[in-house]
Amino acid sequence: MTHPILITGGAGYIGSHTALQFLRAGHTVTVLDNLSNSSPESLARVQTLSGKPIRFVEGDITDPECLAQLFSNNHFAAVIHFAGLKAVGESVAQPLRYYQNNVAGTLCLLQAMDAANCRTLVFSSSATVYGDPQQLPISESAPRSATNPYGRSKLMIEELLEDLYASDPRWRILCLRYFNPVGADPSGRMGEDPQGIPNNLMPFISQVACGARAQLSVFGGDYATPDGTGVRDYIHVVDLAAGHLAALDYLLAQPQGEWLAVNLGTGHGISVLDMVKTFEAASGQSVPYSVVARRPGDIAACYADASKAHQLLHWQATLGLQEMCADTWRWQAQNPQGYRLSASAGDKKS
Ligand code: NAD
Ligand code: UFG
Asked: How many CA atoms, within 13 angstroms, populate the side-chain half-sphere of residue 188?
């Protein structure tokens, strides 16, 4: 069955890769995005790669009028809700902006959905809701906590979604807790396009490999991990996008409403040095690095128990670290300016 789907934040990194897979699966896709951290060029490429049209509404989830208009003019079978701000450090400096955008924005969205009788939602949560985990791998029943306003906004949204379902069991709500999304579409046409200095490991490594930055700082070499560097569960964005299709299929097949949370990860821990070595092999470039002090707030290790997604959603990650690095490098090498103008010029030629 195919359905009309609203994707908030669909011009962003994970949203655009998900929109591509939804179009390929035959769904009709409308994207609502305020372009605060993305470019409409990502959606142009989604259309080219899928060969299908996408409807784009430039608007804000905190704007009730925009939402009311969108829901009164359209019927959506479900909302896939990516829109949000995601930089941990920025959230510490600007907590009100983060709570307004992420929490108040989600409230506005839920009110508009309720008024339109659209009560099926897939929400982008994060492994950050596990705080500093007491046990590895991390299962969905692990205790939740937050160490910064970004993480707290995700936790607050998960909790308000639970309250909403408890008040009205017609809601079908699936919180997907992503581990560390990396990689890019294998075409090399879509990928992560961070503004300024990347906060995250993979985009930083790829900018070092292409010579845009001199070297990687490895934050801490004395963790209680096999090589002393931080361990994470990196998941290819193409696998992650497929997890949203599986989540939608699951929700729409349920005879009754439900609230649940499911991890999306591979279940494997990868260290910073593993990542550097694999990236060097995949790109043929060297990635100079030096080990520096730990980054405040970082944890030693974090990886998923991925069994619930397998059992319930019939989904599991299929792509490994080699593909994550090779696909990131293809995107980086072909689009050194990301989605900015020089990349568009390249687009016209193809
Ligand atoms: P992204 O910044 O690339 O995409 C988010 C999109 O939402 C952007 O296009 C942005 O313009 C849009 N947006 C932000 N605020 C909006 C608003 N008020 N109204 C409309 N659009 C708005 O980020 P991403 O990496 O694709 O992440 C998507 C979601 O997944 C976010 O909610 C993020 O918190 C969550 N998440 C991401 C990661 C990660 O490491 N990338 C990990 C866990 C969870
Ligand atoms: N790292 C470096 N050097 C860098 C960047 C990162 O050594 O320049 C290390 C970190 O110390 C960590 C690992 O690489 O050990 C991964 O760091 P990332 O910043 O890529 O990812 P995090 O796991 O720290 O954070 C990510 C998201 C957060 C989210 C968290 C939990 O960026 O938004 O996962 O889901 F909250």
From this structure: 12
> Is 150 tagged catalytic?
yes
43 neighbors 30 (Cβ within 8 angstroms): no
Residue 305: inside a domain = yes
- d(C-alpha 299, C-alpha 132), whole Å: 6
Look-up of token digits 């902006």: 97
Atom 5, ligand 2: which residue's CA is nearest? 201
272 lines ligand 2 (CB under 6 A): yes
Among protein residues, the one with the nearest Cα to ligand 1's atom 8 is: 12
Asked if the model's pLDDT at residue 348 lies above 90, the reply is no
Indicate whether residue 83 lines ligand 1 (CB < 6 A). yes
Instruction: Determine contact, residues 118/78, Cβ cutoff 8 Å.
Output: yes
Please name the helix (run of DSSP H) or strand (run of DSSP E) that holds residue 271, with its range, or none: strand 270-271
pLDDT digits (tens, 9 = 90+) for 264-307: 999 999 999 999 999 999 999 999 999 999 999 999 999 999 99
Amino acid at 308: K
Q: Residue 212 belongs to a domain with what CATH number?
A: 3.40.50.720
Contact indicator for 57, 79 with CB cutoff of 8 Å: no
The pair phi, psi for residue 99, each rounded to 5°, is -70, -40
Quick check: is 155 in a domain?
A: yes
**What is the domain range of residue 261?**
4-334
Residue-level length of the chain: 350
Is residue 294 a contact partner of residue 247, using CB atoms and an 8 Å limit? no
Q: Which residue has a Cα nearest atom 43 of ligand 1?
A: 126
Residue with tokens 């934040």: 9
pTM assigned to the model: 0.97
Q: What is the DSSP letter of 123?
A: E
pLDDT of residue 341: 65
Residue 217 located in a structural domain: yes
Top mutation candidate among 128, 176, 178, 201 for ligand 2, by most atoms within 8 Å of CB: 201
User: What six digits make up the tokens of 277?
Assistant: 């070595």
- Which ligand is in closest contact with the Cα of 86? 1
What residue type is 312 in one-letter code? Answer: L
Check residue 129 and report its DSSP letter.
G
Ligand 2 site, residue 213, Cβ cutoff 6 A:
no
